Amino acid sequence: MNSHSISPRKSRDKISLTSFQYSDSLPFSENNVIHILVVMSLLHPERETTMVATYLHLKSILERNVIHRLLQMENNQGLRPLEHAANVAAPYMFNTIMQTEGLFFQTV
Asked: Is the pTM of this model over 0.85?
């Protein structure tokens, strides 16, 4: 979504998420759920283990091909979730994503 797109949220200039204010053009636009977990790990480093647990829960309830597609999707910065985690220095999220079976390694 670019800045010229019409969306239902355009009627509000800003939306409050906990203590963080953002508009459609800031960190959450064009990010999938895993990108958002990475962003939340950056914004709330004390909750990174919760974001990792949420990722692991998603892996347990979604089919493997869905997780793989989410992990291959690029955001508006051209970053996949793994690259995004490395870029913002979210080490636990990075390591957890790296351990995703069938994507970055194969079990024997």
From this structure: no
Alpha helix positions (H), 1-108: 33-43, 48-61, 64-72, 81-87, 91-98
Report the distance separating Cα 91 and Cα 71, nearest Å.
Answer: 16
Cβ atoms of residues 28 and 46 within 8 Å? no
Please, are residues 35 and 81 in contact by the beta-carbon 8 Å criterion?
yes
Q: How many CB atoms lie within 10 A of CB 69?
A: 12
Tens-binned pLDDT, residue by residue, of the chain (108 aa):
444 333 333 333 333 333 334 344 445 568 899 999 999 998 998 999 999 999 999 999 999 899 999 999 999 889 999 999 999 888 999 999 999 887 766 666
